[in-house]
Amino acid sequence: MIITVRCPCHPARSLLVPTVVETDVLIVGSGPAGASAALALSTYGVPNLVVTRYASLADTPRAHITNQRTMEVLRDLGVEQDVIARATPQHLMGNTTFCTSLAGEELGRVRSWGNDPLVQAAHELASPTRMCDMPQHLMEPVLVDAAVARGTSLRFETEYLSHTQGADGVTATVRDRLRGDTYEIRAKYLIGADGGRSKVAEDAGLPMGGQMGVAGSINIVFEADLSKYTAHRPSTLYWVLAPGATVGGIGAGLVRCVRPWNEWLIVWGYDVEAGAPDLTTEYAESVVRQLVGDDGIPVTIKSSSAWTVNEMYAETYSDGRVFCAGDATHRHPPSNGLGSNTSIQDSYNLAWKLKLVLDGTASPKLLDTYTAERAPIGKQVVTRANQSIGETAPIFDALDGLSPQTPEQLWANIAARKDATEAAEKQRAKLREAIAFKVYEFNAHGVDLNQRYVSDAVVPDGSGAETFARDPELHHQPTSRPGARVPHAWITSGTRTLSTLDTVGKGRFTLLTGIGGEDWILAADAQDTEIAVVVVGPGQEYEDPYGDWARLSEISDAGTLLVRPDGFVAFRHATAAPDAEALLTDALRRILGHAR
């Protein structure tokens, strides 16, 4: 059906507009969650349509830290190199500095984001990818351009208004903000990726835990050549301990590098009870001057905006055929750099499940595992990010800077640490310890990679509860346990060297086995579901010259791992099995929601 509307630019003209647009998946929002959902779905051949109320993609840096797991996702989706080409590399991220201003006294540093030599080694052992700093206004075009090139339809200036759903689909009402008219989009499924004020999540009635508006913050984007204060200690983050820095915000003043060394973003707090200050150019420049500490450097203010620190998470991520992802389901401060990473990983988890349900391979029951798997991760991320704010306070405490006092007293406390006294020596030790403890924010490798899924899309193998040899927030522990991401090991195929992660993904299941695993290979070939088979061993298509896979796989050569399209182990059998076909068939039925 077609309706006629008047063109707002040329009232004498009429436009023919369909009253109903149809697609398989409607995605509301073009941020990291929405864009990555579109990219994954189009990569898998699923028709999808993205609508955003805005006239463009992100125009400010916003989220930026991109961790190894997200880079693995982007690697599988074929855009890893596009991100690397635009991002700040890992080696320029890691001298997280605490100071009184960029031009002022330095109080200490933390080797961060995998740049500590021991942590760097752990990063190299854990993944074929490297983390990087990829600001959101650069990330979104990479994701969206690739999604559109592969089939996604994108509509700017299109505002989601409401939705209804029935047994076979969802009907969303949207408004064209240019024409002013409304129309309907009919989809089989709806993804709400519309941010921290998600109307889709509100309309779906998703129950939330936690609270919004815990503290007030301001972002100030500016340009200035700060290389004289930063190039010798390259970092993504410079933390400023100055008078007023403990009011609201994220624990201290923050000068964040957007592009080395002339594009920057400052985070500064305000009293949320009193309300945000008037964000004039003069106010923004005064904050910049305070944190930079050099009034002689030319500064150009690009934008400023107020926001609140939130501690809220969805307890369920779906309602019928409506699913939410990203900030719609987990709302937290930028601490630990987890926001866009968790958002992209949400969508990656959901996309393959939608693909298999839409093509009839899986039962809709498979979609129930989205909440089961991602909601605990979202809650963990919200808790961790807010906890990191509190872990900044001991740095101020080491300088006696938490009690009400004049700026002069704070400077005196800071200066006292340089005295040749027993009290000053204790103060220096306390300050070092407080700064070192920030590894829980800046080197939380386990938070990034130790995700474990427990759901009906994972078949337990009876191995019992997992124990961690070291702190699971700080240290990654590779394992092939069902529900864990398949371990990374470098293997070879002819003259190529590739990661075990490069053999999985691509929208299909993968069966990994070795010499003696013929029964598992035959079992995979007998399934109706597409399963790629990877055999690792001497004389096979893939070989293990370093012996790393033999150690990390935790199975015998004749055993098997069934890996899901998202790289997580779904089924494990440590040895050969004469009833391999029956075992694999039963496992797949359970995973795909067909189990009786």
Features:
single chain; 596 residues; alpha+beta; eight-stranded mixed beta sheet; 18 helices; 26 strands
Topology:
Layout: E1 2-6, E2 14-18, E3 20-28, H1 32-43, E4 48-51, E5 65-66, H2 68-76, H3 80-86, E6 95-99, E7 106-111, H4 117-126, E8 132-133, H5 136-149, E9 153-155, E10 158-165, E11 170-176, E12 182-192, H6 199-204, E13 208-223, H7 227-230, E14 237-240, E15 253-259, E16 263-270, H8 281-292, E17 300-314, E18 318-319, E19 322-324, E20 330-331, H9 339-358, H10 368-390, H11 393-398, H12 407-416, H13 422-436, H14 439-442, H15 445-449, E21 490-493, E22 496-499, E23 509-514, H16 518-525, E24 531-536, H17 548-552, E25 560-563, E26 569-573, H18 580-591
Briefly say what this structure is.
The protein is α+β, with helices and mostly antiparallel strands. Helices cover 31% and strands 26% of the residues.
What does this structure look like?
- The structure is a single chain.
- With 596 residues, the chain is of the alpha+beta class.
- The strands form six sheets. Strands 3, 4, 9, 10, 11, 12, 18 and 19 form an eight-stranded mixed β-sheet that branches. Strands 7-6-14-15-16-13-17-20 form an eight-stranded mixed β-sheet, sandwiched between helices.
- It starts with a strand and ends in a 5-residue tail after the last helix.
- The relative contact order is 0.12.
